[in-house]
């Protein structure tokens, strides 16, 4: 029995030794002298997922010899750009972006150097694809806008600069971008009005005026585009706001006079009190109004103001006489920044021969140019109005 156990142990030891020798030989055959896998006959694949959902091919593969010492992603990146495989270059760029700024830096520099040696058409195609993903990248957006401008695609340059401005925090950079957009907008307006490209112009200037409501040229351009398309009502709306503008006020008033002639003489109910004399000073116009009492206040006509404002002492007197009640508050944008302002509801505001009832006004002590307050579009917008800068009159027609 003891002999049988010894024989069994000897056989088991031989089997284990044999297995170890086979495994060692196999490992040696599959590894080189440094312990790395021998891969002379192996390859690796770079898999590019196509981000276009309409592409029926879900991915593309590019086989390269696998050798740790010869893989050069930098060269692959440039090769993809040279072969116009923009998506492949973008994938490599994104892979190194995830590794951090230091890893991405050589690829960004390679992209910039490559773009410097390409024509505008190819550069635009590459930049358009990259900025779809890097839509806040100021460097790429600036390059794209420059190429658009070189190709005289001014509307595209403006849209790109608007995107760039929306991601810029620096006040100086925003000011410089505004100046460039203003210059390009005037150029594209002159260019495309001659070519009768009204639809493109309309969409562009609607966007521009919504982004920068204080820039008068955008409103004036919009009024001309509306007139060219036969939309006189929209043109009148823009021109009314421009009547006090330093550059376009006189043109706006002349156009409004032609577009909104006075009512015929056989309608006397609209004539009494509809023309109001104004005081003029330094290109600004002032009108006298009263708020239900006998005293009048001189208000600066401001078509850029949404709310009419009155001085605090007048509102307190009206409040004591129950001619006004405080109903809330708001913030007003003034020359010194945003300012808290109480809101009052007036029983009535008298302007010329008209009465505006239940008007909400803001309390604001204004001492600019000798004015006691502002007459805003909350009052003027209730009328068709014409500001005659030659005769210094304001004519109101009920809507």
Automatic annotation (TrEMBL):
This is Retroviral-like aspartic protease family protein. Pfam families: gag-asp_proteas. It comes from the Bacteria. Transmembrane segments: none annotated.
